[in-house]
Design a protein that fits this description.
Elements lengths: L4 H5 L21 H10 L1 E5 L4 E3 L7 E7 L1 E7 L5 E8 L3 E2 L13 E4 L3 E7 H10 L3 H13 L1
Antiparallel strand pairs: 1-8, 2-7, 3-6, 3-8, 4-5, 4-7
Length: 147
């Protein structure tokens, strides 16, 4: 399987050897479906301080961190900003996109050179329609993870 991440990241970002098709959420897919996901994934290269998404934005994309780190923060009603988590390579940001429509409940900002791979909701739904085994298998993996 050919991963395009190294080509995009260059020497700027230390990348995980895990390609998007090998993330836990896709662990039970057939090899041809994993290859498809790897080819179709949207990649974003970010610099330190760049915003991936803001709290309240429409939550229509899921991100898999291939290299670098992402800080998740939440602003409370009184204006207090809480740092909730730091996600790094092989972590997923906003996996709720698979379950529900709505808004991002937090903001995500790059802590340095970072590369993400991911899918928009409409792109993933189209992939599932064209390759019907992807959707049920992802749902099963998510259900097992929640349990």
């Amino acid at each position: 399987m050919t991963c395009l991440c190294k080509q995009i990241a260059g020497n700027d970002i230390e990348l995980s050897s895990t390609c998007i098709g090998s993330f836990w959420i896709f662990q039970n897919l057939a090899p041809e479906d994993i290859e498809l996901l790897s080819r179709k994934a949207l990649r974003k290269k970010m610099i330190k301080g760049q915003t991936l998404f803001l709290q309240g934005d429409s939550a229509d994309e899921v991100f898999f961190i291939k290299g670098g780190r992402i800080k998740l923060t939440k602003v409370l009603e009184d204006g207090t900003e809480l740092m909730l988590d730091i996600r790094q390579a092989v972590d997923i940001v906003e996996e709720n996109m698979f379950f529900e429509e709505g808004q991002y409940p937090v903001s995500a900002v790059s802590l340095g050179e970072t590369l993400t791979c991911g899918f928009t909701r409409s792109q993933f739904e189209e992939l599932v329609l064209q390759h019907p085994m992807i959707g049920p298998q992802v749902n099963k993996t998510l259900s097992e993870r929640i349990s």
